[in-house]
Amino acid sequence: MLETLGNIGDFLGGAGVVVTLLHPASQIRQNAMAIRMSVFLDARRDVTAKRDGPSADPEWIRIYFDGNRDFESFSKVDRRRDGAFMAGLFRRYAPILYQTRPGSIDSSQ
Q1: How does pLDDT run across 96-106, given as a tens digit for each residue?
Q2: In angstroms, what CA-CA distances link 2 with 8, 9, 11, 14, 42?
Q3: Which of 6, 20, 96, 103 has its CA 20 to 30 A from that of 79?
Q4: CB–CB of 61/82 below 8 Å?
């Protein structure tokens, strides 16, 4: 009889541990989703800031569009400016791509 009560107590104790672990698991999942969204929003904000600055400058707009049409016609200075701008954009998009690999950012966004 005591052995049966002991077994029931062990079973209930184990069930209590499992139930107790379900709550932290749920919290971890919610936290992971919040971190994913934060990473995505930070990356998007960074890319937007990079593109918004030059978009107000007519010279940058000219370089951006002319560079996409006929890069070879650029002067040496314009080539370097276009290259620096594109490299900056790439550096900002690279973390977004990197975060999609482990699943920190949903690739469908």
Answers
A1: 777 676 665 66
A2: 10, 10, 14, 18, 60
A3: 96
A4: no
- Of 39, 38, 60, residue with least CA distance to 51: 60
CB 52 within 8 A of CB 45: no
Q: Return the structure tokens found at 61.
A: 């707009």
Q: From 42, 56, 22, select the one nearest 92 (Cα to Cα).
A: 42
Q: Which residue has the tokens 């049966």?
A: 4
- Transcribe 45-91 into DSSP letters: HHHHHHHHHHHT-HHHHHHHHHHHH-GGGS-HHHHHHHHHHHHHHHH
pTM of the model: 0.48
Helix axes 76-100, 58-69, angle to 10 degrees: 80
Name the amino acid, one letter, at 104.
S
